[in-house]
Design goal:
Layout: H1 3-12, H2 18-26, H3 62-70, H4 76-89
Length: 91
């Protein structure tokens, strides 16, 4: 479990409100996923779409936030609020 999942679980438990969640997850800098780093893509795979199922998601990156939405830990509205903050941060 990573810090991202811990934050989401604290939110779900009521220890954080949505504004706090957005600050913690929407305003942070996420590392680039390995599948987008050309130096890490195995030479026998043309693109990241060719990676075997299950290897596309990488904890500690934005993937973990997306996985939380896809598995029901975050609602679509929660994810939208975090995403909007993340997009605003990158401008």
């Amino acid at each position: 479990m990573t810090e991202i999942t811990d934050i989401i679980k604290a939110y779900r438990a009521g220890d954080l409100n949505l504004d706090q969640l957005v600050v913690l997850l929407g305003h942070r800098s996420y590392p680039l996923q390995d599948r987008y780093r050309k130096d890490l893509v195995p030479p026998d795979l043309a693109t990241h779409e060719d990676w075997p199922d299950g290897t596309w998601s990488q904890d500690g990156t934005w993937d973990e936030v997306t996985k939380a939405r896809n598995t029901g830990l975050l609602t679509a509205a929660d994810y939208a609020a975090i995403s909007a903050a993340q997009l605003g941060r990158s401008r």
